[in-house]
C-alpha cells in the first residue's frame, strides 16, 4: 500500500506575498508603470506581514489565557502535550523560564524550568489512573542527565503509595490533583499580559526583513521586538 503524505500548508505570509506579486504584475500589465507596480508590491507585502504577525500574536496570547484559566475538568480532557503546556504556562506565571522537551528521547523530563540559576526537571502526567513508581524513577534519571537541582512529578490524578515512598526517599516533589486545584483557584482570572512571562514563548512568527522569528528582548531602554537572526539581521521595533 502506498504511503499517503499530507500536503504542507502554505504559510499566510507566503500566500500574501504571492497575492501581492500577482496584483503588482496585473497592475504593471495594465499601466506599464514599473515603479508603481514595485511600490504596490512592497507596501502591500509590508501591510500583509504586519496583519499576519498581529493576528498570530493575538492568537498566541488567547491560547495562553485559555491555558492559564483552565479548570480541573479541562485538564482531564486535554492531550498530554496541552497538559505539559498548561504546566509550563503556570510556572512562567511565577517567573520561571522553561521549555517543553521533544516528544521522544526526553530522558525522563517533559519540562525543563530555570529560575535564579536553579534548574528543575518536571514530568507531567495527565492520567486517569494513579501514577506509579516508573514516573519517579524516570525523573530521578532526568535530574542526573540534565544536571538539575530538583525534580517534580505533576499529575491531574493521584500517586500510588509506592510512588510516594520512592519520591520521598529521592526528594522528588509531587503535585497531585488536589494541589493542582488549589493552584488553579489562585491563578484563575489574573491578567495574562501582566502575569505571563512570555519572553521565550510568545513570538511574532516572522521578521519582515528576513522571515526569522521575532523575540521580545531587553535592552538599556526597556523591552523591544528583535530578530532572532541577530546579528545577521538587526531588525527591531517597539513593543507597542
UniProtKB/TrEMBL annotation:
Pfam families: Mrr_cat, Zn_ribbon_Top1. The keyword Membrane applies. The keyword Transmembrane helix applies. SUPFAM superfamilies: Restriction endonuclease-like (SSF52980), Zinc beta-ribbon (SSF57783). GO terms for cellular component: chromosome. Residues 75-184 form the Restriction endonuclease type IV Mrr domain. Coiled coil: none annotated. GO terms for molecular function: DNA binding; DNA topoisomerase activity; restriction endodeoxyribonuclease activity. InterPro entries: Restrct_endonuc-II-like, Restrct_endonuc_IV_Mrr, Topo_IA_Znf, tRNA_endonuc-like_dom_sf, Type_IV_Methyl-Rstrct_Enzyme. The chain crosses the membrane at residues 12-29, 35-57. Residues 205-239 form the DNA topoisomerase type IA zn finger domain. GO terms for biological process: DNA restriction-modification system; DNA topological change. Keywords: Membrane, Transmembrane, Transmembrane helix. This is Mrr restriction system protein. It comes from Tissierella creatinophila DSM 6911. The gene is mrr.
Amino acid at each position: 500500500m502506498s504511503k499517503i503524505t499530507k500536503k504542507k500548508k502554505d504559510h499566510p505570509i507566503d500566500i500574501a506575498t504571492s497575492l501581492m506579486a500577482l496584483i503588482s504584475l496585473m497592475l504593471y500589465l495594465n499601466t506599464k508603470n514599473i515603479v508603481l507596480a514595485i511600490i504596490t508590491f512592497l507596501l502591500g507585502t509590508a501591510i500583509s506581514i504586519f496583519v499576519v504577525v498581529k493576528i498570530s500574536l493575538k492568537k498566541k496570547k488567547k491560547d495562553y489565557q485559555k491555558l492559564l484559566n483552565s479548570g480541573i475538568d479541562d485538564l482531564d480532557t486535554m492531550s498530554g502535550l496541552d497538559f505539559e503546556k498548561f504546566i509550563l504556562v503556570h510556572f512562567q506565571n511565577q517567573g520561571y523560564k522553561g521549555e517543553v522537551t521533544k516528544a521522544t528521547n526526553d530522558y525522563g523530563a517533559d519540562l525543563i524550568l530555570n529560575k535564579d540559576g536553579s534548574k528543575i526537571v518536571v514530568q507531567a502526567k495527565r492520567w486517569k489512573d494513579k501514577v506509579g513508581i516508573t514516573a519517579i524513577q524516570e525523573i530521578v534519571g532526568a535530574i542526573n542527565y540534565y544536571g538539575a537541582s530538583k525534580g517534580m512529578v505533576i499529575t491531574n490524578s493521584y500517586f500510588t503509595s509506592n510512588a510516594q515512598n520512592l519520591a520521598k526517599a529521592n526528594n522528588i516533589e509531587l503535585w497531585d490533583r488536589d494541589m493542582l486545584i488549589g493552584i488553579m483557584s489562585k491563578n484563575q482570572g489574573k491578567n495574562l499580559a501582566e502575569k505571563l512571562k512570555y519572553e521565550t514563548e510568545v513570538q511574532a512568527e516572522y521578521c519582515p526583513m528576513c522571515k526569522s522569528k521575532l523575540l521580545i528582548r531587553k535592552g538599556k531602554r526597556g523591552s523591544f521586538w528583535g530578530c532572532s537572526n541577530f546579528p545577521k539581521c538587526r531588525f527591531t521595533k517597539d513593543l507597542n
